[in-house]
Amino acid sequence: MRDHQIRSYAPRGSRRFVRRFVSARVVSSEKIVYRVGMCKAILAVLGVVMMSVVSGGRAEPGNPAPPHRSRLFALDTPGGPLPFRISVQRSDDGPPVVRVINGPEVLTPRVVEYPRDGSGRYVVRFGGFGSELEWRETSGGITGEWRTRRRGGTVAVPLTPASGRPGGGPLFDLPVEKPRVAPGRYRVDFSSSDEPAVGEFKITPDGAASGTFLTTTGDYRYLTGNCSGGTLRLSCFDGAHAFLFHAALQPDGTLAGDFWSGSWWHETWTATPDPDARLPDPFAQTHATGTGADLESLIFRDLDGNPTPVSRIAPPGTPRLVVIFGSWCPNCHDETRLLTRLHKKYAPRGLRIAGLAFEHEKDFESAAARVREYAADLGVEYPLLIAGLSRKEKASEILPVLDRVRSYPTTLFIDADGEIEAVYTGFSGPATGDAYSELRRSFIAHIESMLKPGPGPGGGADD
Hints:
Elements: E1 34-36, H1 40-46, E2 49-55, E3 58-59, E4 67-77, E5 80-89, E6 97-102, E7 105-107, E8 110-113, E9 121-126, E10 131-138, E11 141-150, E12 153-161, E13 184-190, E14 197-203, E15 208-215, E16 218-219, E17 223-228, E18 231-237, E19 242-249, E20 255-261, E21 265-273, H2 292-296, E22 299-302, E23 307-309, H3 310-313, E24 320-325, H4 330-346, E25 352-359, H5 364-378, E26 384-389, H6 392-398, E27 410-414, E28 420-425, H7 434-450
Parallel strand pairs: 24-25, 25-26
Antiparallel strand pairs: 1-2, 2-3, 2-4, 4-5, 4-12, 5-6, 6-7, 8-9, 9-10, 10-11, 11-12, 13-14, 13-21, 14-15, 15-16, 15-17, 17-18, 18-19, 19-20, 20-21, 22-23, 22-26, 24-27, 27-28
């Protein structure tokens, strides 16, 4: 995870930032992943979006798509409007279902407040991230803000209506022009970092664009937008991030652009087409300087405040994964979803998983409340401890078993003999496609190598 996503108002040029994350399929345990199916005839008449709710990534057969009221909103950032879509499905006997549509990802934040008559104030909360989206609908339009926690406190970004098609079509208001930006893989350089990055972009003939950036500490999650001529616009809003990317095609086929994160970060970036662009091996970035026994001797507090040695939740003599994470980190959410599945599959064969949380909040009660919400939203069944504050230099001091903490998350694979046999830096989530599939295979291979041969539940981690 790159530091600008966890620092507030970092002065430009005052720090060198390591490559960061992004991330998240996020938020709530109520989250429903679904495919969007749109009927243009109905859209034209009713101005609503029809969506198919899916289970396990597949549409439920025989169920008609429920109607949703879909609107295009925008966060007012220093780089200009950051558009995203919201749908509201009303209910006669309870709160509405609010869905935030982030490209192929659909988030269902918890509805905290809503107007009984359909107009008025809405407040939705993105669990685990400690962020809220508030808007008010009146006859004069929409006003509101997105509030998110940063290391320096809470930051609010204004919310406004956005120009564009209400139910579908391009996110960004650009002239209709055949796209000239080539899809594919790019070698990327961000101005704030010396670390390498890779961009992957999909651009259709009609200008629809999507993609992500992979870095040595994580990915930028699902980016969606459109391309017009040599102009590319991409954005992501998932309750944790507010990313806006602008790029212009150069005469030599490269891209030059700007990146804004919320209202607190800006940098420039360039990209060169390169189908062979790759990142360094995540297993080779962070090095163990101690053993499992050194880690086991450390004592932190559990979520009830009880001092707990790591040896109690990741006992010696057992193969275990110890994860360094933060509830505020979208890449950590992505990894935790995978680890909960791996835990269910491999716990019967003796695998233990434990998490060490490094939070923004200085007081224990606030930090524990955030991690409790995180665990509840993601269905975590393995133990978590509050280990300290989220600054990486502090985490490195607390965990001398590593040369340093470079990223959230960082995952330690410890065998039954207490040897730290592998350390994985960062996490490439589902938005990265093949990279995520490869990560999942490598995690499973390392776990299998640490476990004694024996019967266990069949299938992969997603089964």
